[in-house]
């Protein structure tokens, strides 16, 4: 049935060394050599030679045509986040390239390994304001870990190798490579060597023995130690080391939203989420612990609240791979500058096996307060209107806590992160640092393709959904079994919440007049259902989770519910509000 | 925290986009660059940025961390004025007739140890290398007579302590060959 062409028989590792080939073909061989089998992108004039090669190599390299270049970046991010591999997005010059900027910024702030390839006008037209010319290298500089413009075909192998190496090594991030059209057409002698080092770049610092000793000594003397872990644990694949560390030390551990799922939700020492809408205990007790151990997290302002009142009483130990993060927001007492996996593994034998029952009781007491005032009402509401929380609970139950949850940005995101429960790492995919509305639908496409065996549920608000709704076309075209849940309150809910609390309910431009989302999904031939009553919810979720096809579920939720607890902007973590 | 002058020395690969990347770090934090000089360094194919900022040490340290984070930066340092030897250079273009009409100008030239770079019928050019305040003093002395053009370079500096880039690169090279 399948025609095996000569190219296919070469195998991914075998590249046509020493052969004269075009820059465009060379790019494909580079991608194959880097283990890429999936690209998200959108063609156009300045990248056409590459697309012509993609056509020839389609049996080995799948290209997914997203409906907008921004979708390509988020899909590549979703793929990268769920698989740990480098996501690849491709676009043409000019508007194609500028449409990548949001995804690049998102990947930069959330440390997601991604390589973006853009076409560019031919070298002789650079700087002439040619058709679809834009200085994407200049534009993307602040939002990329590294970028480069290739103007000669012969540069392609070395630069692509460097791009992948930089994107995935150390603290990962996005890299953009801009390739002028002449470089795609011109021939080169192909020779590919993977990049293993760049002399000015030192991605993997190793924590000093003194820092490990100092940290262990602080931890061993601590009466009320507390761990906050972030995505650094996931990126460093240090989940087992974290669990061993938590268990031996007996230290309660909380997570940032990007660290969620690095430690199983049902672990007895997992005390929940920190930050603006995090759990009551971990936030308040941040200001009561005596030693704070921050692992692969960067003290984002949404985590710390007011820095002047953040954990001032505590000695702070920071396990971090990026030297620029040390003392950036919070002055630390001991910095373990290195990969979280290595630092944790070296710390483990030096710490004493302990338990902290009294200290844990404080978390439990705070949890009880939050449970009664907030969690119970969110998850098991007795009022008429549906809550976002009960939908997330339904997904947990129907999926056996095994789904990948991809959330967008806003109230539903906070609810999804607060209540989604996970047994497996790399399961919580969300736009943390940048807060990019429109992230979830395309990211779910990437997540589904990066983890085809896992159920992927996109939880999205009615606002963010409409920012990238066109990506339903991809789900339809490729019949991806993504489960799309839109929690519709006909509002830009989080902004509305702030308007209610801080702007005297002046609901400026937050009321949404929405289309019939079910009909839109059906227009894409996607099975769709709307739930307005509690008695239909579980059945709909069960139907959705059982579906092997794409499935769209709109849940009409209470219009003016608020997300609590909440640390008001600029307030201290200990001033977290329960109502 | 006290604000003062800090001189940042950056050793980097010679890359087109790096100036943009480095200036962006200052731009993002609203830190004004007092002066910027880019030149070759003592090591082949390694560029050196000399950047002067007027800010707190805390900000300077954070900026240096962000600069070092850039892939093509080999190493960055910051120094206070007493830790470096530094100079600025200025050029003054002045009408030639003033040399003869205004006796005081000759005294200024002598006292300032400025060099006369060129003299033509219409103008002459003075070059003054020294500390910023010396150049400022000279400027104020000459100003009443009329300065046709004035320009001052960015600060250039060498540190009293070693900036052991050669050793660092050798170490990296050794690691790469392991």
CATH topology of the largest domain in chain B: Alpha-Beta Plaits
How helical, in percent, are the residues of chain A? Answer: 25-40%
Q: In sequence order, what are the helices and strands of chain B, one letter per element?
A: EHEEHEEHHEEHEEH
Q: Which superfamily, in CATH terms, is the homologous superfamily of the largest domain in chain A?
A: Thiamin diphosphate (ThDP)-binding fold, Pyr/PP domains
Give the overall silhouette of chain A.
globular
- Counting structural domains of chain B, the number is 2
CATH class of the largest domain in chain B: Alpha Beta
| Biggest sheet record of chain A | 6 strands, parallel
What portion of residues of chain B belong to β-strands? Answer: 35-45%
| Contiguous helical run count of chain B | 6
Runs of chain B with pLDDT <50, length 5+? none
Give the amount of beta strand of chain A, in percent: 15-25%
Rounded to an integer, what's the Rg of chain A over CA atoms? Answer: 24 Å
Mean pLDDT of chain B: 94
* Head-to-tail CA distance between termini of chain A: 64 Å
For the secondary structure, the number of strands of chain A is 20
Q: Biggest sheet of chain B, open or closed, and with what strands and sense?
A: 5 strands, antiparallel
Looking at how many chains there are and whether they match, the oligomeric state comes to heterodimer
The CATH homology group name of the largest domain in chain B? ACT domain
Question: Architecture of the largest domain in chain B, CATH level 2?
Answer: 2-Layer Sandwich
Number of helices of chain A: 23
Pathway (chain A): Amino-acid biosynthesis; L-valine biosynthesis; L-valine from pyruvate: step 1/4; Amino-acid biosynthesis; L-isoleucine biosynthesis; L-isoleucine from 2-oxobutanoate: step 1/4
EC number (chain A): 2.2.1.6
Family (chain A): Belongs to the TPP enzyme family.
Keywords (chain A): Amino-acid biosynthesis, Branched-chain amino acid biosynthesis, Magnesium, Metal-binding, Thiamine pyrophosphate, Transferase
């Amino acid at each position: 049935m399948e025609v095996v062409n000569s190219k296919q028989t070469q195998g991914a590792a075998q590249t046509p060394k020493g052969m004269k080939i075009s820059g465009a073909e060379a790019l494909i061989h580079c991608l194959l050599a880097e283990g890429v089998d999936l690209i998200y992108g959108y063609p156009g004039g300045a990248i056409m030679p590459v697309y012509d090669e993609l056509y020839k190599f389609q049996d080995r390299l799948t290209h997914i045509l997203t409906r907008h270049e921004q979708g390509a970046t988020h899909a590549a991010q979703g793929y990268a986040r769920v698989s740990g591999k480098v996501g690849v997005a491709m676009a043409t010059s000019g508007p194609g390239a500028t449409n990548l900027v949001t995804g690049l910024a998102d990947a930069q702030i959330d440390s997601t390994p991604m390589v973006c390839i853009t076409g560019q006008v031919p070298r002789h037209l650079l700087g002439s304001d040619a058709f679809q010319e834009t200085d994407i290298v200049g534009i993307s500089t602040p939002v990329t870990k590294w970028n480069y413009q290739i103007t000669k075909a012969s540069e392609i192998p070395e630069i692509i190798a460097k791009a992948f190496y930089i994107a995935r090594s150390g603290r990962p991030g996005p890299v953009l490579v801009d390739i002028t059209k002449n470089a795609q057409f011109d021939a080169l002698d192909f020779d590919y060597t993977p990049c293993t080092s760049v002399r000015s770049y030192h991605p993997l610092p190793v924590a000093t023995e003194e820092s490990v000793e100092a940290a262990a000594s602080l931890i061993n003397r601590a009466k009320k130690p507390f761990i906050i872990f972030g995505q650094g644990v996931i990126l460093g694949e240090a989940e087992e080391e974290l669990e061993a560390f938590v268990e031996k030390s007996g230290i309660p551990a909380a997570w940032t939203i990007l660290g969620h799922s690095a430690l199983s939700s049902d672990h007895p020492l997992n005390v929940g989420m920190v930050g603006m809408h995090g759990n009551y205990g971990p936030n308040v007790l941040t200001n009561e612990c005596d030693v704070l151990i921050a692992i692969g997290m960067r003290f984002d302002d949404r985590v710390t609240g007011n820095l002047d009142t953040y954990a001032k009483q505590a000695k702070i130990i920071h396990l971090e791979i990026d030297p620029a993060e040390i003392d950036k927001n919070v002055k630390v007492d001991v910095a373990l500058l290195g990969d979280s996996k290595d630092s944790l593994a070296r710390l483990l034998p030096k710490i004493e096996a302990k338990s902290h029952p009294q200290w844990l009781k404080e978390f439990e007491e705070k949890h009880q307060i939050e449970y009664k005032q907030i969690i119970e009402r969110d998850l098991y509401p007795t009022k008429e209107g549906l809550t976002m929380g009960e939908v997330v609970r339904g997904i947990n139950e129907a999926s056996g806590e095994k789904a990948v949850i991809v959330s967008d940005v806003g109230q539903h995101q906070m609810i999804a992160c607060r209540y989604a429960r996970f047994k497996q790492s790399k399961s919580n995919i969300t736009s943390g640092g940048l807060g990019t509305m429109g992230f979830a639908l395309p990211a779910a496409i990437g997540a589904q393709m990066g983890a085809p065996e896992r159920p992927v549920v996109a939880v999205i608000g009615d606002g963010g959904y409409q920012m990238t709704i066109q990506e339903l076309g991809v789900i339809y075209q490729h019949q991806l079994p993504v489960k799309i849940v839109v929690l519709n309150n006909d509002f830009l809910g989080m902004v509305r919440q702030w308007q209610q609390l801080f702007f005297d309910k002046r609901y400026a431009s937050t009321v949404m007049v929405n289309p019939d989302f079910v009909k839109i999904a059906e227009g894409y031939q996607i099975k769709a259902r709307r739930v307005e009553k509690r008695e239909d919810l579980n059945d709909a979720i069960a139907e959705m989770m059982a579906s092997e096809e794409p499935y769209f579920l709109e849940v009409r939720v209470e219009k003016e519910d608020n997300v609590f607890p909440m640390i008001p902007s600029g307030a201290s973590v200990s001033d977290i509000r329960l109502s | 925290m006290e604000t003062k002058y800090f001189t940042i020395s950056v050793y980097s690969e010679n890359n087109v986009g790096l100036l943009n990347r480095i200036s962006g770090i200052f731009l993002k934090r609203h830190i004004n660059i007092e002066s910027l000089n880019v030149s070759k360094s003592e090591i082949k194919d390694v560029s050196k940025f000399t950047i002067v900022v007027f800010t707190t040490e805390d900000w300077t340290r954070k900026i240096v961390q962000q600069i070092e984070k850039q892939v093509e930066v080999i190493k960055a340092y910051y120094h206070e004025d007493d830790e470096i030897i530094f100079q600025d250079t200025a050029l003054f273009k002045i009408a030639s007739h003033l040399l003869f009409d205004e006796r005081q100008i000759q005294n200024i030239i002598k006292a300032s140890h400025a060099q006369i770079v060129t003299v033509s019928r219409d103008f002459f050019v003075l070059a003054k290398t020294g500390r910023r305040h010396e150049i400022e003093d000279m400027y104020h002395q000459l100003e009443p007579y009329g300065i046709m053009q004035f320009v001052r370079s960015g600060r250039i500096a060498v540190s009293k302590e070693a900036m052991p880039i050669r050793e660092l690169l050798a170490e990296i090279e050794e690691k790469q060959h392991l």
